[in-house]
């Protein structure tokens, strides 16, 4: 009877202790052992090879910033040490896999690559207390882990609103802290061109500046008459790409074509089918400065409203040469295997009106304007492929025929991704229904958003492999990503508010084995993670922040 009592007590104690191990994303295997280890300024950080120096630097920077001390980096293993050790071909682990063992004497992280070791270090960070101290007690655990999907990404739109280099780096850190490995950087749009192209200086002299933005979600309210501008120099881009690389994150640039190109057309009107036609926008939807510029003879404007615009790139030799020149400079800056060309929401109105486009359709034996867009994308794909890269496009690139080697990013639901996978094309799932981080987080949201409703549970419930795909077709699903469109995010604090805590849920969707996902357990873990957000100084959504939004005139609540 006494033995049974003590055995039950031990089980309860072990279960209770295991509950304290709250790691996001959930590892493939984690065992909570007895005992603990205390990290203090006397602890040594052992780096076994040069490839792990970036991981050691990240960890020391984290300790210094949030706990006020860092560790001495040494090569010799001893007690009271954290050992980073990248190996190869560890049994049962894929390239990004790692094992972590902590006990009373220290921590050993063994990665199946330098990247795996980095992810093991991120798990160690998840074991750290969420209160500042110079004595950090962590649980004794055994972890064996690796990601479910090869592509774990998040997109940041810097075109609708420009964000400084410091925040772009912080955003990359947020991805790294969640074991995500792709940063999709949306650099060009109707409302702003954000990357320096030395051969075409007007792209930033003119295209990076707009005279105002529409007020709220209702264009009829007019412009705020507040200029928005900014771009990244090539040196800044190189710095950001290196910063991401040190965190094992690949930066994928997006240069939109053929639609969402108003900023480029404002800089170089000859890119338009109708270079002499003025930007057609109702006067009550643009700034006073833009009205004056149009009255004084300016033809094209960087757009001030959100949405889809009919003035798109003309499929002329001038345009193709321009885009090839732009891509030359972009590919020189980004070592990424992948180059994103957009391809979404490109109206065919101008092409239907253009004698040149109609003649081109006949000359190329195309059926319609959709096939003309396919011709446009396939031509750019050939150039990208010739330079050893792979094209990514939104799922509209399926219309009129898919480019031979293209990767489809499926955003209009999952249908595009399903169709592409069935055609043996690689797919990145990013449906607006589940992973758009610009949607409202509650039905009574106090913050202005673009609309939609995607709460934490909906993100967590997402399954990137559609049930319509068989086992072979499912192999073409590379993974998924969250999208942060910034029409209604004017500053870093708003971006943080929109991504947290949803980014944490998405990280578990993409990293953890499907069978290890547990919504009830995640709800417990996220409460600890919120304390970590506070340590980071990050803004985040809290349920009790929500309140009804009311329209200023008719009093009706905004329909989400």
TrEMBL record:
InterPro entries, sorted: Beta_hexosaminidase_sua/sub (IPR025705), GH (IPR017853), Glyco_hydro_20_cat (IPR015883), Hex-like_dom2 (IPR029018), HEX_bac_N (IPR015882)
Keyword field: Glycosidase, Hydrolase, Signal
Domain spans labelled Beta-hexosaminidase bacterial type N-terminal: 22-145
Start and end residues of each Glycoside hydrolase family 20 catalytic domain: 149-513
E.C. number(s) listed in UniProt: 3.2.1.52
Pfam family, one: Glyco_hydro_20
Catalysis: reaction(s): Hydrolysis of terminal non-reducing N-acetyl-D-hexosamine residues in N-acetyl-beta-D-hexosaminides
Keyword Nucleus attached: no
Enzyme class: hydrolase
Keyword rRNA processing: no
Matches recorded under PANTHER family: BETA-HEXOSAMINIDASE, BETA-N-ACETYLHEXOSAMINIDASE
Family in the record: Belongs to the glycosyl hydrolase 20 family.
Protein name in UniProt: beta-N-acetylhexosaminidase
Organism: Flavobacterium ranwuense
